[in-house]
Amino acid sequence: MTLTKLARAIMLSMVCLLVFANVSQAQSRTVTGKVTDSKGEAIPSATVTVKGTQSSTSTGADGSFSLNVPAGSNTLVISSVGYTTQEVNISGRNEIAIILEQSNAALNEVVVVGYGTARKRDLTGSVTKITAKDFNTGAIVAPDQLIQGKVPGVQVLATNGAPGAAFTVRIRGNNSIRAGSQPLFVLDGVPLDGRTARPELNASGIGSSPANNPLNFINPDDIASIEVLKDASAAAIYGSRGANGVIMITTKRGNVGKPTIDFSTAVGTSSILRNIEVMNGDQYRNALKTYNLTKGNYGGNVNAMDAITRNVLLQNHSLSMSGGSDGARYRASIGFFDQNGILLKSDFKKYTAAFMGNFKFLDSKKLGLDVSLFTTNIQENVAPVTNNAGFQGSLVINALQWNPTLSLMNGDKIRQSTNDPNVAATTVNPLALSRYYNDKIGLNKIFVVASPYYTFNKKFEYRANVSLTQETGTRRAWMSRLINIDGVKGQGWASLGEAGIQTYLFNQTLTYRTDLTKKLNLNALIGYEFMDLKFRRNNQLYRGFGIDEFDYTKLINSAAQVVANEGSSYEDPTTQLQSYFTRVGLNYDDKYLFTATIRSDGSTKFGDNFRYGIFPSFAARWNLHNESFLAGNKVINQLALRLGWGITGNQEFPSGAARERYAYTAGGGAALLNAANPDLQWESSTTLNVGLDFATANNKVTGTIDYFRRNTNKLLFNFEVIQPAPPGSRIWQNLDGTIINSGVELGIFYNMINKKDVAFDLGVNATFLQNDFQNYSGPQILTGALHGQGVSGASVQQMRNGLPLNAFFTRKWTGLDASGNNKFDQNEKLQYVGNPNPKTLLGFSTDLRYKKFSFRTNWNGAFGHDIYNNTFNSVLNVSNLQSERNIASVFVGGPKESLTNPASPSSRYLEKGGFLRFTNATISYAFGNVGKVFKNVNLSLTGQNLAVFTKFKGFDPEVNVDKQINGVSSFGIEYAPYPSARNFLLGLRVSL
Amino acid sequence: MKKYLILFGGLALLSAGCTKLDEKLNSELTRDEAQQILKANQLLQAAYNSMQGPFQDQARLWCLQEHTTDEAVGPTRAGDWDDNGIWRVLHQHTWDADHSFITSTYNDLLGVVFNATNVLNFKPSVQETAEAKFIRAYVMYTILDGWNQVPIREPGEDLRNPSKVLTGTAALDFIISELNAALPGLPNTGPIFKANKNAARALLMRCYLNKAVIANRASPSHAAADMNKVISLADTIIGTSTYMLTPSVFDNFTPNNDVTGKGIIFAIQNLGGSLSGNIRSRWFCTLHYNQTPSGWNGFTTLGDFYDKYEAADTRRNTNYPGLQAATGLNMGFLFGQQFDKNGAALQDRRGNNLAFTKAVSLIETGNNLEITGIRVIKYVPDLASGDNVNNDAVLIRFEDVILMKAEAILRGGTATSGVPAPYNTPLNIVNAIRTRSNATPLTSVTLDQLLDERGREFVWEGLRRSDLIRFGKFLQPTSLRTTNSTATRLLFPIPNGQLAVNPNLKQNPGY
User: In the 8-state DSSP scheme, what is residue A721?
Assistant: First the structure.
């Protein structure tokens, strides 16, 4: 189905629903009105009920409502989450204005927890909720960006600056030695697979391109709130996948009332945020002189990074329609996001269409159905920037290294060694690479959730979730035979890749709520869940094209022009999960609350002897403010103590890892690939959490403080196998060893000024983290592979007992000797020289309103960690002067370094990673209603990624290029990644 | 009551979802499926193919056998080829038990042992059994030679259990008995990349020739009985009249050497364009960027080694048919000015004449750092097959058999009478090899001369370290390693990773 057809189908179904929703109601008078808060801002979704009747409605986006009031009724009840419920007398009035007072805002909120919801004031676990109004603003592709810097204890880190790039999300530190420390994402109650069908690519001579964010398929404008479940008490209901925390994404729903159209549009520009300082032509000439080099000066002054970067436009549009009656609410949206990359020939386009419906059936309204449907098409052009470029570099490397005295073009010809004697044989002109490299990706995803439920009575409710995902990706890449890269030059190269993911999920829960006594309330849930995940991919490589420039992917059928092709296809072993879970909550007089959860998870990933794992948690809450000794206290408005303990698991490792697997191999062979480990089981994290929720100063200051300690044991790891064993194999084992993440996190919200014309809010969150690897006695575990010329096979990180994970373990550089060569501590002994894990995370936001103007800013930072600069190590070192390549400016001016000083990996290339980022700022003007048609018109100007304050010399201190070895993830290494962009967007929002 | 009905109904519903987890492997086979579907010959093919990695890549056995000797060195050329000193420590004899090439070689070789052993688990025929045992014996011998400790498993063993480790002479005895058991089942002849009787005999020759070395590497004492076994096995091979000294030694190293290599007894198959090991690294690692094929400007030989050749020795430099016209290259050693295929003088990337020098250092520092060191071209570059070249990787050739025979005689063995010249006496054998390559015949031959001849003949074929140890010269200095090494260096260290997981392994002395 094409996208237009799909959109049409959705429109059509919406029209049907409108008809369904607007069945006229009984004759009576109509009361209209508007609900606002004390600042005069509209409150959407507030419930307006005629007291003592079933008649009710919700306010629209502009806070207005219209309600049929039966004759004889004279009181309306207006309620909304976070506000004190109000009763209004309407005798003799058909039009009213209602101002709702904010209640103890934060604590009355309802938050989404696993398989249900809870009032925030009832939470026993550590959960942070961020609603749409507090999301980050700007060119946002995926949901994790929305909460960057917003949630205590959560680090959200872009792996590089490309539009749509993957994010590293870590909740309360690094929990795993292998690549499996991402949290579980749950969308509208459905745990996601966490992979994407975007085909991977390893381009001949250039390397592997970085991954994109698997959550790109979601339109951020469709999201109502994001909840982060941080401790075991909150996450244990997700059992073997809860150890890294859980991020729950809840989409917007239609409200009861007139159909509303919301339209938002933004156009903007992107440009490079920071550059890496390399020499300009004059500096380069000086450097040549300093080193008495006679060759390499061609007289020019060229900035090759300027030649491959550009200032580009971006646009983002969303249109949604929502409304409905009590029995049928709907919301349908379409979105278009289009961001050109700041590197040549890179862009990211996303088309989304979503439908959410909430239906109730039967006279009793006991039978209901909630549905969500997401369809997404993503189209990308990818620039040749890779994680592991070798000596012929990638686009950024080639630009950084380009001799700044030699123009990139000679007339209209791109200078290459094939047409220009001034270009060395191995030097790749970045403009040539950009021109001759082409890489297109198309990704389609359909994600459906249907949740029927039946409410038996006030006590029992049954709910099921059925979800299907179908995702397919194609990738067509080719390089012209004109490019000067080994294996491509003279023959050309083309790759056709395809991947597909299919997911099926079914879960069902039965909830039971009752008052056991007048003061003791019971809330229980039992559930079952089943998941089936399939992943397949294939790739064809072709070489030997007889044409210079033509889309090779389109002429592969012409056998005469293709001399070699290599292909591969693979389908992962099927992953299935089957789980049983239960949760029991007790509430005594709103003073003492207790929650226990148990989940039993069975997974095909586990070995035969450990098919099912049990994950329990227990937590309690004491609402001190409800005790008599604090009643009426003027200083302390809220005070609650939380204590939680639980065990969660991690099973993010490849399916089939526990099993003996044979495969057909090249040349007609067959061999065992993987050694069996029937004892393989989940990784186990035990978390202790102590938390305090408080409100003071007339509820103007609210906050939470949590202390946590998470010990992760039975570490899943692809370990050294005892030889003789299948060639190149390792064995998945649960290692003895403990990863300890402990720390304190706090979040404080201060409603500093709250007057009619002026308001100011300040939000601050901070996290203090410590990471340690203990009780491990096995061999060192290496990761952090370096790439580039002269560092083949080198790695700079180790997992070692007594050190933080991913400790930088290299030679310790002590300067240059008299001849300009490296000096190292203790005869080049490898030692612990740095830690990539931040000790402190910081985020804060300000929100200033003056009349109709508002000004919001968001900041985030991380401190106390190191970053390894692989770019300086292998791409920009001084020896480049001899081969007529550029070098980093930092390497000249100090003591004279020998041109022949080897590029030995060492602490020399370790830099302080601390930074403070001015994440975004938005200034907006609320026009309110314009004429009779346009409502809530809001004009805004947003600057995103405005500045980053740091000593780090790479493009961006928030960087995490994938340098894993044997599946052991690296952290905090920069290697000429796609540079970060600064964006400015002009946005308009309007409702109809 | 209703409450309980709902609860009961709910539970019933929940349990209705209960299913048995489905464990489909999709692209792969479970053990049971493998046992039913797979045939021994498929596992045997995989065992052959798994030899491609460890025996061909420049960062595996080859560099351990060559960079540690006077035949090869990998100089650091400023930002290029430092690789954290990984090449340098090989030549300096300062490697440790975390050296990643030593580790990977040991593990990759044992991977072949596993694959060969696993053939025995799939009801192989007599010949398949014999071939698998030959492959295993060949690789086990290689491990024994380098590390002295050879882990081994029974077919089908639980891979989580520590494997048994055979050490020194016990390992050698096992290898010999396996070869003797395999011999009757092996074919007399066949393609060079399949195990055959002569390959097993040649490997047995290596076993007996080195038996005393394996018993005591620092000071071996060769037994005449062992030497006589070497001689008699050589005579059997010679008697089959299967092999010849090809007109040029390089005929054994051409892209189609499975046809032209009439001296090859056993090789690893490389299928051009589709399935190859990294034998192309032999020329890529040494050629300069500006040569054709464009290389990586890395490894060289030492000037002293180059000087072991006479000027007219075609092993030193040959205009091999067809090569110059396509690339401008000669076979053998590249010394002095280099030319392109049109005869134009080449330059390096800095504008120096591309004239390779005898002088070379472990860390190059001058403006000439791209051109230092004499380059070695052993395999005739395959220009037609892309990255997957077609040259089969030579493991045993006839020249080795006859030179081993000569050595065995010099070490106290008795030549069998009745073997026709030139394969009858050490001098005749050495001179047959020398005259084929246009070197002046010797008038007499000593063990030292024989070692030099082996060096000249087998340069960069991955035999040097073992030869130097057998002749007691491995620990001696080279021009780039100024002191004698300790006896520790006669063995490689057991990789720390394996040491940590297998309690039956013990670290070799000195590491």
Answer: P
Q: If 0-12 CB within 10 Å is exposed, 13-18 middle and 19+ buried, where does residue A557 land?
A: exposed
Asked if A670 reaches chain B (Cβ–Cβ under 8 Å), the answer is yes
Degrees (nearest 5) of the Cα angle A463, A465, A471? Answer: 170
Cα–Cα distance between A91 and A723 in angstroms, integer?
A: 88
Report the C-alpha gap between B245 and B265 in whole angstroms.
Answer: 12
Query: pTM of this prediction?
Result: 0.85
Separation CA A571–CA A631 (nearest Å): 63
Dist CA A207 CA B405 (whole Å): 49
* Beta-bridge partners for A988: A265, A939
C-alpha A211/C-alpha A961 separation (Å) is: 10
- Find the CB nearest A879 among B79, B151, B163: B79
Nearest CA in chain B to A462: B10
At residue A303, what is the residue type? N
Do the beta carbons of residue A800 and residue A830 sit within 8 Å?
no
Residue B424 CA to residue A76 CA, distance in Å, equals: 117
Q: pLDDT by residue (tens digit) across B359-404? A: 999 988 788 999 999 999 999 999 988 778 999 999 999 999 999 9
A727 vs B50, B160, B350: nearest CB: B50
- A119, with CB counted inside 10 A (0-12, 13-18, 19+), is middle
* Residue in B33, B294, B363 nearest the CB of A425: B294
Say how far apart CA B505 and CA B498 lie, in whole Å: 8
ipTM score of the complex? 0.93
What is the nearest CA distance from A447 to chain B, expressed in angstroms? 22
Q: Which residues of B touch A899 (CB under 8 A)?
A: 78
Angle at A809 between CA A803 and CA A810, to 5 degrees: 160
CB A141 within 8 A of CB A350: yes
B32 touches chain A (CB under 8 A): no
Phi, psi of B53 (to 5 degrees): -65, -65
What residues of A are in contact with residue B59 (Cβ under 8 Å)? Answer: 793
**Which residues face A712 on adjacent strands?**
A685, A739
How close, in Å, is residue B45 to chain A by CA atoms?
Answer: 5
Q: What CA–CA distance (Å, rounded) separates A892 from A204?
A: 34
Taking the C-alpha atoms of residue A248 and residue A130, their distance in angstroms, rounded to an integer, is: 10
Q: Which of A609, A600, A615 is CA-nearest to residue A658?
A: A609
| B311 inside 8 A of chain A by CB | no
Q: What is the pLDDT of residues A122-179, one digit of tens each?
A: 889 899 999 998 899 888 999 999 999 999 999 998 889 999 999 989 999 988 888 6
A234: part of which helix (H) or strand (E)?
helix A232-235
Considering just the CA atoms, what is the radius of gyration of chain A in Å? 30
Q: Is the pLDDT of residue A260 over 80?
A: yes
How far does chain A reach from its first CA to its final CA, in angstroms? Answer: 30
| CA–CA dist A391, B298 (Å, integer) | 13
Interchain contact B36–A (C-beta under 8 A): no
User: How far is Cα A396 from Cα A308, in angstroms, rounded to an integer?
Assistant: 8
Asked if B114 lies within 8 A of A724 by C-beta distance, the reply is yes
**b/e burial code for range A149-186 (CB count within 10 A of at least 16 → b):** bbbbbbbbbbbbbbbbbbbbbbbbbbbbbbbbbbbbbb
Residue among B3, B27, B53 whose CB faces A570 most closely: B27
Q: Which residue(s) pair with A129 in the sheet? A: A227
d(CA A419, CA A427): 12
- What's the CA gap between A735 and A758, in Å, rounded? 58
